[in-house]
Every structure is written in structure tokens, then in C-alpha cells.
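Take a specimen:
=====
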Amino acid sequence: MSLLEDAVRRLTEWPAPDEAQERLREEYLRHLQSRPDGMWKACKDGHITASALVIDPGGERVLLTLHRKLRMWLQTGGHCEPEDATLEDAALREATEESGISGLTLMAGGPVRLDRHLTPCAWHLDVQYAALAPAGSLEQVSEESLELRWFGYGEVAAVADESVVSLTERSRVLARTG
């Protein structure tokens, strides 16, 4: 199965939590049906990206990265690569690379939410996951970040945009019920 086929399967099967997320899910699927290159950064009409919000082992904090280019506090994530077999692989690879934490595991149940946003390269059709950090893990700043910092759930809204806040809130709810 190709990464494109995996993305279509994952998005087709994903139960969107509300109408806005359902509209995005349908938009992503239309994009992939009309743009076979829609998984890749080279697609200037927009492309699928994968990200993961890293949650500490105690479930009390999230790790955000101060993105070097955008100068914003964000979850870890980015472009899909040819070696990624699945969207989950892409999200986990990006989270591991950008956080420096090995042994991350994605929270069960698939994507947490979807977010479409304009970046300097194109529209990102982001498939967002949550990743749990193992006990005793230490973060390490990558070349893509200016800084990494742990924030309590209640602190995220003061530093991050609505997309990160929504991802954090939804991840917190799913972590409690999962």
C-alpha cells in the first residue's frame, strides 16, 4: 500500500468528531482524488502533512516547539517523506526528529483532528495526532526549532494559535477517555 492509499484509507475510515472536521475530512479526500501528488511538498496546490502533539508521561503537559522559520509555538510535525509507509509513520518520525525523544508512541484511535493552514510553501492539510513520551525521556532541540518547552494544558492558549489550542484540548479529552 502506498502512502497515498494509506492516507485515503485513514481519512475515509476516520470518524470526524464534528461537522467542521467532517468538512475538512471531505476536502482532504477530494484533494487527494484530484491531485495524486497531493502527499508531497512539491504539490503547490497544497499537500498533506502529519503532526503530533507530544504529551508528557504524566499526562499533565505538552511539548511545543518554537518553529525556527515561523517563529510560533507549534506541535511537532511536517512534510511526508517517501520512506513513510503511513500517516502515522510520518507523524511519529516528525515528532521524534523535532523533539529528540525516542520511544514516542501515538495515542490509539488514529488522528486527533485535522487542520488546514497556509504556510510559506503552500496550504498544509495537516493530519494531527498525539504522541505519548516515555518515562524519563528528555527532549533535545533540533535544527528546525529555536526552543522546545513543556507547557501545562492551561498555559497553551497564552502562547499558541487556535489550531494548537484545539489540538491540545482534543488530545486531553481523548487521553482521559482512551
